[in-house]
Structure formats: C-alpha cells, structure tokens
Design goal:
Blueprint: H1 2-11, E1 15-16, E2 19-20, H2 32-46, H3 51-55, H4 62-70, H5 77-103
Antiparallel strand pairs: 1-2
Length: 104
Amino acid sequence: MFLFGLEEHFGGPNWKAGRWKRPALAGRGGFYPRVVEFANRFRGRNGSVVCRALLGCDISTPDGMTQALERNLFKTTCVKMVEDAATVLEEMEAESQSAVARDG
C-alpha cells in the first residue's frame, strides 16, 4: 500500500512542478483499487494478507515471537512473502504498461 501511495502522490495528478497538492478527499479512488487488486492477488498466492495467518503464530505476543524465532520464520516465510509481493507488483506494473501501450 505504501508503494501505491507514493506513486499516487509523487507521480500522480497531485504532483505538479515538484510540489505535492493534498487532494480534497482521498476517498476510494486513486490508488485504492490497486491496493485491493494487490491484496487479492497476494491472498490468492498465500491464502492471507495477515502476518499471523501467514506465519502460523502471532509475533505480537512473546510466545508467538519465540515460535517465529525458533522456526526461523523471518528468514524463510517472510522472505518468501516479500518475494511474492514483489512478483505481484511486477505483474501489475507489466499489465499496466501493456494497457498504456495498447490504449496509446
């Protein structure tokens, strides 16, 4: 979501001549549909977008953090999730570029 927000505010219609203009109402336009699309694709690959579900433990608790460390989840599962997120973003960007090229 952070990346979509950066693109919207620093590359979108609110970024003019090196200055960002705050939109009157952010609403659900702009980057929101892309966030939903990203979340749906990521969920399709991994079953969830919630860390607790992805890791199989709740790292906001001492017991959950201990489990994650003992199972080396930050170097295994988390790395895979970051790779999957990057792949989804790359796919979405390629599709966006294809649509721009096609639609002129």
